[in-house]
Design goal:
Elements: E1 4-9, H1 17-34, E2 38-41, H2 55-64, E3 70-73, E4 76-77, H3 83-96, E5 103-106, H4 111-116, H5 124-138, E6 143-147, E7 152-157, E8 170-173, H6 180-185, E9 189-192, H7 196-212, E10 223-231, H8 235-259, H9 274-279, E11 283-286, H10 288-302, E12 306-310, H11 318-331
Parallel strand pairs: 1-2, 1-12, 2-3, 4-5, 5-8, 8-9, 9-10, 10-11, 10-12
Antiparallel strand pairs: 6-7
Length: 337
């Protein structure tokens, strides 16, 4: 089964902000040069977990620093956007990049962040569904009319269009197998943070639904998992880098939840220590050989065809992350060609 590799980036705070964006652009350029398929950035607000709260602004810079790398939000939190503005931003990014945008969409995983924006989290699912309908219609027309509960438009001229028609490929964060039929019906690429055995229920269901719809297995969308990855010359060097960086990343991940006396759902919580995450199959640190063996197990046990590596997190330096990227590209990825 062919496997491709991409990158997932929370853009979480790890050092002085003055250097942060330049260091991340150095990494993005490395992903482009070394043959990664896609770069996916999270959207979060009012938290050190996400220093790219406006993904479109960040991705415009990414477009100018890359030549082949596909990129996109994972995800745009649709209830936070005016759909007409987002249609324009999507078209601009796809045009600026020559058709390399990957369109991730979702309702937002954090009710705390939605509430900061004055939104009722209970309304987010309906707003998301309507907004997605508006986006897909607006990206494939020159005049938009839509009548919904939250959004109404009549004969709005749409001046921009994406390179990829009818729209850039859709991506969605998935947590349960009952979301698969919709994804398969709409040819949506799916990504999760789940351990291998839980992800297997989703990939098995996706293949079943895909075949039921009469599609060829050769055209199967991406089904991926994201994993923390640190590669160094030795296992010990990699673990010494990964452990403190993971603790800092996890602290950022949970900061708003702890502040408000709440916790995310159980499957979204990562264990306190890196070694525990690695034991669950959700992270790896080691020499290239150890990381290569880990990736083989994850692919086999999960049934996936895409792995999103989280190379930069917590207080990992840009140089340490770059070392991981180059070692991974040179000594891990070729085993999956």
């Amino acid at each position: 089964m062919p496997v491709r590799f991409g990158v997932f980036d929370h853009m979480d705070r790890g050092g002085p902000l003055a250097d942060f964006f330049q260091d991340r652009l150095r990494l993005v350029e490395a992903y482009d040069r070394t043959g990664f398929y896609g770069y996916h950035v999270a959207e979060h607000h009012a938290t050190p977990l996400g220093l790219a709260p406006s993904p479109s602004v960040w991705l415009a810079a990414v477009a100018q620093h890359t030549q082949r790398l596909r990129f996109g939000p994972l995800v745009y939190t649709l209830p936070l956007y005016h759909p007409l503005r987002l249609i324009d931003e999507i078209c601009m990014l796809d045009q600026l990049s020559g058709g390399r945008l990957l369109l991730g969409v979702g309702r937002g995983i954090s009710p705390i962040e939605l509430a900061y924006w004055g939104l009722d989290p209970d309304l987010a699912p309906v707003m998301y569904q309507e907004s997605l309908q508006v986006l897909l219609a607006g990206l494939d027309t020159s005049e938009l009319t839509f009548e919904g509960q939250h959004y109404q438009y009549h004969a709005v001229p749409i001046e921009l269009a994406p390179v990829q028609r009818p729209h850039p490929p859709l991506w969605y964060g998935i947590g349960r197998a009952d979301g698969v039929p919709w994804a398969a019906q709409h040819r949506v690429n799916v990504v999760a943070n789940l351990p291998p055995t839980q992800m297997r229920t989703i990939t098995d269901r996706y293949r079943t639904e895909w075949a039921r719809l009469g599609h060829s297995i050769d055209d199967l969308p991406f089904m991926g998992v994201s994993r923390h990855v640190v590669v160094a010359d030795t296992d010990q060097q990699a673990l010494e880098l990964a452990r403190p960086a993971y603790r800092m990343w996890r602290e950022s991940f949970l900061k708003l939840w702890i502040k408000h006396g709440r916790m995310p759902n159980a499957q979204a919580i990562f264990p306190p220590e890196f070694d525990e995450a690695e034991a669950q199959g959700r992270a790896v640190a080691g020499s290239p050989g150890r990381v290569r063996d880990f990736m083989r197990r994850v692919v086999s046990e999960s049934g996936i065809n895409y792995v999103l590596c989280r190379f930069a997190f917590g207080n990992l330096s840009a140089d340490a992350a770059l070392q991981s990227v180059f070692l991974f590209a040179r000594e891990v990825m070729p085993a999956f060609y």
